[in-house]
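Response to reviewer comment R2.3. The reviewers asked that we include at least one raw input/output pair. We reproduce the pair for Centrosomal protein of 70 kDa here without editing.
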Amino acid sequence: MKVLLQRAQCEIDSLKVEIKNMSAKSDIDQKSFKIQKSKLEQQIKISEHRVKAKEILLDRLQQKFQQQVDKDECSKSKNKEIFRKIQQRDPKKANAADLKSMEIIGMYENERRKMHGEINLLRNQVQELCCEVRDKENMLARQHGDKKIVNHDAFVDRLEKARFEQETASRQLRQKESLIQEKIKQIEGELRQSKEVILQLREENANLHLEVESRPTIRDYKATQRRLLLLERQLSDQKLAMNEATDIEELRKYVGTAELIRRDKSNAKLQLNRLSTLPKDTCVEIIQDICRQLELTDVTLIGPSLSKMISVVQAVPRMEKIIRETCRCLSTASIIPLEKIIPTLCEWKRNLAELENLQKYAADSIQVLSTRSQSIDSMAGPISHKRAIQIIKELVEFESHFMEERELYQLAMDNAQKHPDILVNRMVQHFRHLFGVKTMEGVFPKINEVFLYVNEMNNALGTIKSALGLASDISVTNSLNALKHALENVGSRPKKIESVNYVVTKDDEVAGGAQVRQQHMILKKLKHEMGAQSIEELIPRTKR
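Raw output as returned:
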């Protein structure tokens, strides 16, 4: 016992020593774990700071990318709108020509933006140069005064030349700017249209999403397929069992309880239970006859076939009424065959479509004819179809008459050019040459004009001869000489008093037509000399 106790004591001591060693080792491990934990926490904090910095950087990059994407989408939409406005259609993705046109439009849009920036830069430079030139002029005027007039004039000429060049460049830039503004307006209109198209596409996309969400999922579809296979298997089993059934009792096992109750009630109502007293051969013959009439191979299908026939027979009166009304609408004189009904209805449908187009054409024609002047169309009120046809006939007749008259003039011109030796053609060409008539259409108006002029001259000569008491057969030269002598013998007339050319009354603040014209000519010369575009630019240019 003592030996065992000693051994146990030794083991206990050894275990205590091991426990102390393990506790010391655990303390050391715990300290090392704490140190590692603190290091890991520091690393985690550093990593968190780095991750936050990276997130900020990523947010900035995402914003830049989003801005760039928005800018690209805006440019693409503008290019599409410009293409749609030019080509009157949407660009096709698979068409190389459309893609090339889109690239060219994008290139021109980039050039337009660059030109706009250059225009703004040149404007600033022109303003700075004008300020510098004005400062140099003032400085030279203060330094030299009136001693170096020749150099000052040369310097002024150089400055004026430079100013004219700058104004020419600025004028060109203003023209380019106006063109660019017009393009910008067009692009803005196209952008609005593209936004509308985008909204329509978004609505269509939302509708498609809703349609997709309303459809069954793959899981539901597979479950439905499994259920369908199960039902088909059950149905095949029921059919096999019914085919193997040999008597009525076995068939009744595969019929539902509600159906059996309904059948029993119907049998009792119609007193069909007495059919069981009929001989078997008679029943078999009757059933065979029914199957032959219905062309059935299965006795169980007699009931469904008869129900279908009953529903068809019930619908026959309505069908007869519809067919009778349709035949009456199609033909009132005689009975139309049924084979002609469908083609006749199809022809009516085509005629209705053509009728709509014809009505639209007639309305447009009447609207166009109603815009005629009231002096041409004397009839007031709306234009009827009969009146519209009459107006169109009149226009056609007028056009044919006009064309015939123009063809006649053209034939006369061609005849005069091809046969210039004929006397009539020579007379006409000579008349045109004398009076400066360029076309054949102006010959008759010129003849009328000459006739009126000659009549007026003859009337004037007759008045002069009667006033001077001359004979009616005296020549024109003698008549004019007599008129000259008569005017010389008449005493000198009093000098005409010049009237004041005022518009309304004699007022200093009211200028006459001559004064206004003179002032306008002076302002026009000043604008030309000063190189100004408008009257408002004259005063600033005189102050330089």
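Residues 240-343 form one domain. Residues 146-150, 496-512 have pLDDT under 50 and may be disordered. Further pairs are available on request from the corresponding author.
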